[in-house]
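[job 0412] stage=fold_complex status=start
inputs:
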Amino acid sequence: MLTLTLLGLLLLVALGLAAPFLRPHRLAPRLVHGLTGAMALALGVAAAIRLLAGGDVSELDLPFGLPWTGVHFRLDDLSCFFMAAINIASPMVMVFADGYARRQAEPARALAPLPVFLAACNLVLLANDAFVFLLAWELMSVATWLLVLANHRDAESRNAAFVYLAMASLSLLLLLLAFGAVAGGDGDFRFSAMREATERPALATVAVLLAMLGCGVKAGLVPLHIWLPLAHPAAPSHVSALLSGVMVKIALYGLARILFDLVGPPVWWWGVTLVVAGALSALLGILYALMQRDLKRLLAYSTIENVGLVVFALGLSLSFRANELFDLSALALAAALAHVLNHAFFKSLLFCGAGVIHEATHERDIEKLGGLVRRMPYTSLFMLMGALAAAGLPPLNGFVSEWLILQAVFASSSLQDNLPRLIVPLTGAALALTAALAAAGFVRAFGIAFLGRPRSEAAAKAVEPTGSMLTGLALLAGSCLVLGVFPVIGLKLAESAAHGVVGVDLPAGAIGWLFVSPLGSGGAAYAGFFVFLAILGMALGVRAFLGRIWPERRRRAAAWDCGFPDPNPATQYTASGYSQPLRRVFATSVFQARETVDMPPPGDARPAHLEVRLVDPAWNWGAEPVRRAIEAVTLRLNALQFLSIRRYLSLMFAALVTLLLIVAAGQQ
Amino acid sequence: MIPAAISALLLQLLHVALALAAAPLLVGSTRFAKSRLQGRRGPSPIQPYRDLLRLLRKETVLAHDASWIFRVTPYLVFSIMTVAAAMVPMFVLDLPLARAGDLIAIVALIATARFFQSLAGLDIGTAFGGIGASREALIGSLAEPAVLMVAFALALVAGTTALPAIARFVLSGGVGVEVSLALALIAFLIVAIAENGRVPVDNPATHLELTMVHEAMVLEYSGRNLALIEAAQMLKLLVFISLISALFAPWGMASAEDGLDFLEVLAGIAVFGLHLLVAAILIAAVELAIAKMRVFRVVEFLGGAFILAVLAVVFRFVTEAS
Amino acid sequence: MNALFLILGIPLAGAAVLALVPDHRLGGWINAGVSLATLVASLLLLPFEAPDPTPFALVDDFNIYLIVLTSFVAFTAAWFSAGYIAHEVGSGRLTPTYLRFYHAMYQVLSFAMLLALIANNIGVMWAAIELATLTTVVMVSLYRSRAALEAAWKYFILGSVGIALALFGTILVYLAAQKAMGPGMDALTWSQLYAEAPNFEPELLNLAFVFLLIGYGTKTGLVPLHAWLPDAHAEGPTPISAVLSGLLLNVALYAIVRFKMLLTANGDALAPGPLLIAMGLASLFTAALMLYRRRDIKRLFAYSSIEHMGVITFAFGMGGPLANFAGLLHMALHSLTKSAIFYAVGLASQARGSQQIDQIKGLTASHPALGWALVAGTVAISGLPPFGLFMSEFLLITSTFPRAPILGVLLLLGLLIAFGGLMLRLHGIAFGEADGDRRPLTGSLLPVYAHLILILIAGIFLPGPLVAWFQSVAEMVG
Amino acid sequence: MFSTIAYDLSHLAGATVLLAGFVVLYQRRLLGVFRAFALQSLAVAAAAAWQAYSQDAPHLYVTAAIAFLLKGIAAPIALNWIVRRLDIHRTVETAVGIGPTMLAGVGLVVLATLLVLPVTVSSAALTRETLAIALSVVLIGFLVMITRRNAITQVVGFMSLENGLVLAAVGVKGMPLVVEMSVAFSLLIAFILFGIFFFRIRERFDTLDLQSIESFRGERR
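[job 0412] stage=fold_complex status=done
writing structure:
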């Protein structure tokens, strides 16, 4: 299995290398996307089967890489789960890409890095020593960088790519330090050695912190997320889908791998840190998403939110583990993993949908959309499902995992340490707020973009896509529904992965085909299938019943609108208008949201003007100062380029004398 | 004797039927009580049935821009509310659907209903729909955390969020008088008021569009669609009241575990009816006592609820720690 | 041993021949041929059982791979230059006479470098390095433009002072050794020196090391002795820039490391590590920050060379098996990568008719093959996988941090800054709308690709003997 | 047997070299600088000759000869000639005042002695003092290079630095390759003088640097 997987990855890389030479051919995109999708599907299904069948850990060492250690691969339940999670959604994205990519300006640029990217992501999952892990990790970043650069001609995406790459290498270097600290001075980089290490090096604590930072950067945890809302919109939509659905997940895998597996038994503060960071990311992410006008940027921020949820659950699981509440730890972990899986599906769906809209209207600003539901009914149906899932509402899949996470929160009262016991419920409340805001946010996104009347020419002329794009959306939406109605499918995977990590099962019958009762029967339960069936049946039944007794008489007329209907679409409620109350309540302090209203005096013809300004604190207080500092320093230092020879000689002389003085001092 | 499964099914059906039947009556009696307290005669408690019937018979007028979402929403909202009602124990503890979802699931279902209603509000592309949707979003996003904290407090007390289990626990008198439960109750009441768009958060009887929240969203509806929406709204009120009664005063509920005792069921229904009556009068009294507040005051109102719920949780921890 | 004579003889003979060949195209190819012959000769060393050192020549694990590397890069550079230089004549920047001179000098240069590597005598090594410096000075001034002359002059003056100081250091080493070994040639002979090192006079050794560090450090381009380097790279012919960055810096560094070995062998001497670490970090940070405001593409990569020399010096300063291994690996891979980059840069500046970055903008759009090669090279040089420098930086950082956390963090910071600067400029060079003129590609891309493939392989798999050499040298350097 | 005399003589020569170095540092007029340099070179030549005699190492005579002919005589003449040809005006432009420079020079001498002090005497007769002197001469030469603006003076500084090297080289017993080194250096110096003349560097290296060149760099911000 492992060998086959590696061969598969090799194939993908080869495909990527071959792509530039296929490029002239018309069918090249179809070929590349098709093969990549097929390979991914194979990998994902195989991993899922192996996970459910409970195959045992398989390892493989090859004499490459670091001369004296070689490279090590390992396939265990955790990696299997993530392999399934990232690889099952991506073929559907590939189907979408087949139709979508060819309409891009330079499809070829995204073609070659794509398979390599997927291969690298899978390689991270297989790594069993620090070298392979980081090599794959950074290979992934490089591929992503090229993908984001796909439309390199506009400065915005160049900038995004640069910020991304810079942050990515920051994460790499942090992880290098982390692994260096774990491996210790003699430098045994094998994961197996780290696992078996009985006494931890002095720096192990630092290593944990560094690992959290390193993976946090890649996963887009607040406040390390600055690259994410830049990179996602800049990339072509199928790439954005992969970024959210695959790459970010890999970062989470790294976090889980290091914290649960490599650095030994957890200490209480690990979990708490993650819990707080996760809740913070979730809340800020969704708040910011609520303020966005750019659809893809909005989705990107919602990704930050979901990452926050997962990290929160991971932290919870760690805290339980630190208290040796293994079954609860397993529950929280399973919840986190389940959310990873679900998010991969619905976020890919949403990004692909955003791509469809952009193709149809060349607009990403939802204020300029509207009325699409009539122009593109199927797309809007799928996007509605995606929105429901992302808002964490039943009966779609987003709800199940968020529900599980909350169940884990409710169980937190059995923690012993007092700090987590008080922090977890409060952060849980933050989570609840997040869920509510998510619902509001996606009402806004979907409602403004798809409903109402078209706000621009482009929106009015939009046409439904055909063929593979729509198929891709349909597949993704379908799987979101299935995973929501029969959560067991995803949860079984998550459960067995959690079992592989924590070593405990969820209580018997916790996850059945009909009922999900994580704390055992009698405890809280959820039956997605029943709920779905009941709602659907009820709705249809009522409709039929009413139709039977009083056959419906329907008439189209102008909107009532309290007697003053205004045909001008500009009178509709806008996205910023929709989020204004929430902005006033939440965003004024966090993002220094400032509204400047320019109301012309009576008789003045010019239109009134409302402008809303937001800042992302992470950007303002994190990245911006760094940029300024570098600018200033380089400006000063650049003078070195223009000195006179005499000055350069003086530098030499100074160096010489200093060294001599040092030596003299050393000799006294 | 009837086999358990069949009986359970029958019971569930009875439960749903009762809920559907009781919801308009609840609203009607609230209005009746209100007008009586105001000293008017007021419409009879069964007036809502008449309204609904009339609306159902009327022809439906759709705006030109109304999309399929606009048309689907009433059915969805109505059925979602019915399902939610079906999941809340009213007079019998264990129902088949009561296991289909816990408190959180019910809250989420209600949120789904809100989701669709807001969409419908935005669908026609009128200003008022937008106002309604956005305010609803504000209220909802403030109410939900409060509910969750309440749920948390209950979970801490009863060790679960499954409604029947909580009810059992409260029945078993395992709690006694709990500070946290009291706080939670108050918080939940506030949320209930907000969620159902009652005074002081929203005025169901207002005709001034600018102050509307819920009414503004459904402004464009007519005919049977409106009827369904109204019915859903009434059901929602019922759901919340029955939630309160199930969580904080589940007395007299029949338990289906040991077979079905017909008398018990009857008793349960009677007690539940009593609860509803009390609730109706209380709501009327409250709405008379307080005036509607500005939208941004609502924030503080609901924030208060949230704080209370948090306090409930913290107190619970304190009592446990001692 | 005769292999060694070949290695040194062929370039000299080649120089003599080339001085006589009038036609510059022919000269270019002869030049490449001669270098190829040298390469083959050096490959004869490879089935390698250490020959016992003669007073004249020393071949051990340390310099053997440098010899092979040098002759290899010298060959590819000559190969590249054959196409490149011809075009320079075509565009009228150079005249055939100059070219004859250039080719002869090229061989002299490679002779000098190989001699410096092979010599078993610190005096001879010093002389060889001086010779190399003088030749490169002449090469840098080849274009006779004022900028070129000025660069050459700066290089010349700083270089001469460096040479003088290095010589003083050499004398001091002799003085230090003399106590133990008495007068005579032995006290200048590496192989003897190592044997006797423990009995040297530590104070003199320290003093010597300071002068040697400053002297050869000037050649290595360590900050603050680096001033000549960027201009020399930018104004000279590109093949020479490649040789400078790829080889000459290495040779100078090689000298420094050799002397460091003496100090480590002698117990009582001051630990040279801190000095090296300090200069390494200084170079790293300064060069990294200088990257941000470069407008001239060759100067950009020249600064990146300084940065990498800093990293390598840092590695040797840290010492220990892992760090030294990383340093040696980094030396080899950096010279391969950087020379490849300079080939690509040369082609780019010919294809776009300027060395200014904003003229070259959008290279991947205008010349995909070249552009992507340059991107790959830059990705490699900034230590990203799958290329080899990732491995060396991985080893360096992971081994540094546990031993000296502060230094580890500093190193990381410097690398990050450098990375940012290089990538920022790369975006300007390779991507975006390709306006400005685009001419057909002049030279062959094969040398570039050859180097890239080599470093790619190195990133995944290192051949056993190489590893063995590195490890034993890592032992020696201590 | 006459080790003391040997000691004194070589010491005397060394002292002269150092003194001449200071004079170079002190002189305000170019011709004076040249003379001082010539004196220094002659002293070096004398030292070399004496070492050749006392160590009976005949090849050192060559070094002495080179020092005498090239640096004692040829170089100053060449310098004069260049100064006349390029009519460089005759006063030394100092970047740092004479006084501070002198102080710095003294400081350097102190540093040099400080460095050489711990060296054990036993190593080889008379090396320690020679070494100290040579070191100071080197440092002072360097100091001249960086405190004078004239290209010419800088060259002189470089040459006196190199005098220090020779002094050290000949001072060490049995140092091989001394001749070769001095030859190589004369080559270097020839190059420099040639370059100065070729590039017509009238006043200072600086002119070749910023002011006229920056336009070529494309690096100016």
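[job 0412] summary: Chains B and C do not touch (no CB pair under 8 Å).
[job 0412] exit 0
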